[in-house]
Amino acid sequence: MASPKTNILFCYVIFCFALSSAMAHPPSKGVRGAYYPSWAFSTFPPSSIDTSLFTHIYYAFLVPNDTTFKFDIEDETSTLLYNFTSTLRSKRPSVKTLFSVGGGGEGPARFSRMASTTASRLTFIKSSIEVARKYEFDGFDLDWEFPQNKKDMENLAILLDQWRVEVKKESLTTKRPQLLITAAVYFSVDFFLSGEFRSYPVNSINKNLDWINLMCYDYHGSWDTSATGAHAALFDSKSNISTSYGLRSWIKAGALRSKLIMGLPLYGRTWKLKDPIVHGIGAPAIGLGPGDEGTLTYREIEKFNEDNNAKVVYDAATVSTYSVAGTSWIGYDDTRSIAMKLSYAQALGLRGYFFWQVAGDQNWKISKKAKQSWIMS
């Protein structure tokens, strides 16, 4: 672990880079986004969102038909979509809204089939435009998790090319502003951990997408219960599984920095320690800790810390935080780590940040700190 003096120097250098970057870019360029899960409507309606903290909110998720690749919107969902866009448009300040297509629970097969032919791509694209206009969204976000091989990546590039052509055409015909096209993507430009090695089509992304949301989290979790981990580590001296590596990989591959949005988690991953005395990052574990499948929202973490008088530790080496109470261990981001991450993002000249997901915050504590830390916005 770095010494305290080294950490202070690092913070100062990062701040100076961030400040110079902020002075070189107009404030209106920044993106402050958050995903809104549709299953939160009953406990956290769109009216609950403090829109002063965000510029873009993504409705998660809509999924196209598995055969036709059109969006079949049921009456109940239709009501939710109208409520979502009308509410956020009427709030002051208002925010831009997009609907996100797919999600982690959907799997890659449906999108692989959709993107495989010109006809199926066009059906999907036209339906997405129809949905966006009908429910008054400002755009759409493709969350294909994940293209599985080189052919999928080639088809993704063609899909994005075709999508942008149709969006431009629709805008010219209707004389309305072009719909936004974004995508949620892997933290790294290439997949080097499992499956066939493949890389995202950076040239097509630069040309066709307004920006991409890098999912800079879930590096560790319930799939490995042998040791604790910083699931959204900015740095990892022992591997390439870190946000800094992922960001550098995209930039090295030629991705425009103005297209890159850093993902931040409003939740933590939990483990059960083998020995409560040994509780650092990477400490031996024997299973999952509290929460649903070893996951707690930031709100739940704050309550856990208070109820259990937990020990809270900031880890400067990874730029993350963890809490310990007995054998329960939780790794997450707090206001300190969020501020450091955003200073790093600004030093790299990124476009902005987003959260998964907006309902996980505690009294807007993290979201407010993020906005304050994002000098450019």
TrEMBL record:
A molecular function annotated in GO for this UniProt entry is:
chitinase activity
Instruction: Please give the superkingdom of this protein's source.
Output: Eukaryota
Domain GH18, residue spans = 30-377
According to its UniProt record, what is one Pfam family this protein matches? Glyco_hydro_18
| Keyword vocabulary terms for this entry | Glycoprotein, Glycosidase, Hydrolase, Signal
Q: Which Gene3D superfamilies match?
A: 3.10.50.10, Glycosidases (3.20.20.80)
Statement: the UniProt record of this protein carries the keyword Hydrolase: yes
What family does this chain come from, according to its entry?
Belongs to the glycosyl hydrolase 18 family. Chitinase class V subfamily.
Q: A Gene Ontology biological process annotation?
A: chitin catabolic process
Which Gene Ontology cellular component terms are annotated?
Answer: extracellular region
Looking up SMART domains in the UniProt record yields: Glyco_18
User: What is the taxonomic lineage of the source species?
Assistant: Eukaryota, Viridiplantae, Streptophyta, Embryophyta, Tracheophyta
PANTHER family referenced in this protein's UniProt entry, alphabetically: CHITINASE (PTHR11177), NOD FACTOR HYDROLASE PROTEIN 1 (PTHR11177:SF396)
Name of the protein described by the UniProt record: GH18 domain-containing protein
